[in-house]
Amino acid sequence: MIVGCIMLTVGMFVFFKSQSFTGAITAAAIAGLGSGFTQGLSAAAITDLYSGSNRTMMANIGQVTFAAGAVIAPAATARMLGLGYDWHLAFLAAAIVCAVSGLLTIAAAAQRQEKINATSHDKASFRTLIKDPLIPWLGVGIMLYVSAENGTSSWLSSYLSQDIGASIPMAAMSVAIFWFGIGAGRALGAAASKWLGDLTLINVCIGLALVSEVCLLVSHTYMFAIAMVFFTGLGLGPIWPTIVSVAGGAYPSRSGAVVGIMVASGGLGGGLIPPLIGRVADMSSMRVGMWISVLVLVINAFIFARLRKKHKHEQSTQ
């Protein structure tokens, strides 16, 4: 995680200093690698330290702070741009935040007070992990989730400005509202994990996100659309941490490898779908392009409905 924080700091600072597209791409690659390190290993640490519903609760609580940053950053950037500041300064601020995170991680590592909750029966090889149907299907599920999340958040402001007619500042603020919904969803997911099973929670959340995104894309008024932005985020929020909790719980002693598979799968979805939405939007409209996110959620709903059905069947035959 310390290495990840260093890479994030370097990537953000390179972006701040960059004056060319090549420099920006290089910075994005460095920061992306750092993000993969920090997000995956922090999630793995949580799955090591907790079990059962406590693991899902803490996974969601941990991601609330992630969502808080995603709310604050676009809101602060929109405010900064509104005041006439150079947008490069946002990346300098991000570099400072990442450096502080690195220092906090070093302080945490120095204490070494964690009591890992892993069991001894899961010394499974990587081949064993990918041969278990649950892990690949969870990987596909998290890939589709990140596709829907990134596909929505990446083009949300463009959709609201081009198709709904929102002003540029109001359209930019929608990303913060979306992430506020995700944060609120994760907080609610942490509470609901005490009385809802993990797969049931995922199915409920996919359903809420699907209905909300459909309403968002058929909307023609800003106020209704922005309400659906919040509810889309609310539904999407608990999905990522709960999937990671399910995967980590299946192989407690291999949490690093399992969560690594989940993060890699999510990165694949996040890299493929947003450009596809942009391409479709170029050929038609942003409203049409964003229906790809809805299609992705529909597929994910079928996947997790089947996983839940299979899980209930296995429980009934035990």
> Domains counted in the coordinates: how many?
1
> What proportion of the residues is helical, as a percent range?
over 70%
Classify the beta-strand content into a percent band: under 5%
Strand runs, count: 0
Helix segment tally: 13
The biggest beta sheet is recorded as: none
* Overall mean pLDDT: 85
- The Cα radius of gyration reads 20 Å
- CATH homologous superfamily annotation: MFS general substrate transporter like domains
According to CATH, the fold-level topology is Growth Hormone, Chain: A
Order of helices and strands: HHHHHHHHHHHHH
Shape: globular
Overall CATH architecture: Up-down Bundle
- Category from helices, strands and their pairing: mainly alpha
CATH class: Mainly Alpha
Gap between N and C termini: 40 Å
